[in-house]
């Protein structure tokens, strides 16, 4: 049986400490005692560990573990998803699912057709998105937590010179498919894993000026087929296609 993984936010060479909700759960629900075995992720590495001390306290519960041996970890897919901010409940769902599917990074951006009130409230949401990604990573037994970038305007992110193959999902695109561009970048990367960045538009789609901006900055427009997906469906479908090649 594969064990649950705990993701420690505090660690040193020999120990890791769980705090907050994770410590509460381990101590109260699982009744952790010194000597109990657990798998712990610390600094992106997975360790087989043993509980050393349990402190149950109303405000500050803590479980300290001794790191016994490092285990083989599975790397995230080398993919950044650039998500144009849209309805928060759907976006949160997308962040959770993308984390389960193995995304490495998520970059939330404000696009022209992002609703104004969402654009204004989004900055404050980033911490919550990070927490959701952390919980989903743990649930999926990942050995890392996806990086959720600070919110940026699309115009900035689209211009930043990433080393990745940059792909923009566009429902207007009729000929180039996502599969085609992935195959091409795999050939170009030879033995390496190609790094990809994939942009998904908001509910209203990309504005013409944004399509021009992507074009001018070397992004490849791709189609996921003739049907129009909601943004969260497009994001998940795209990552599933990537994972079928890279995993
Ligand atoms: N404006 C559109 C819907 C946008 S869907 C309309 O209502 O007609 C939101 C985003 O999902 C798009 O910007 C695009 O990035 C992505 N998307 C949806 N369906 C797609 C498809 N078939 N191929 C590629 N991208 C798609």
List keywords for this structure.
247 residues; alpha/beta; Ribosomal Protein L25, Chain P; Alpha/beta knot; 2 domains; 7-stranded parallel sheet; 6-stranded mixed sheet; binds S-adenosyl-L-homocysteine
Description:
This protein has 247 residues and is α/β, with parallel strands linked by helices. It folds into 2 domains: 67 residues, Hypothetical PUA domain-like, domain 1 (Ribosomal Protein L25, Chain P); 168 residues, 3-Layer(aba) Sandwich (Alpha/beta knot). The chain has 7 helices and 13 strands. The strands form 2 sheets. Strands 7, 8, 9, 10, 11, 12 and 13 form a 7-stranded parallel sheet that branches. A hairpin with a 3-residue loop joins strand 2 and strand 3. The longest helix is centred in the middle third of the chain and has 24 residues. The radius of gyration is 20 Å and the shape is elongated. The model has no long low-confidence stretch (mean pLDDT 92). The site of S-adenosyl-L-homocysteine (SAH) has 16 residues, from helix 7.
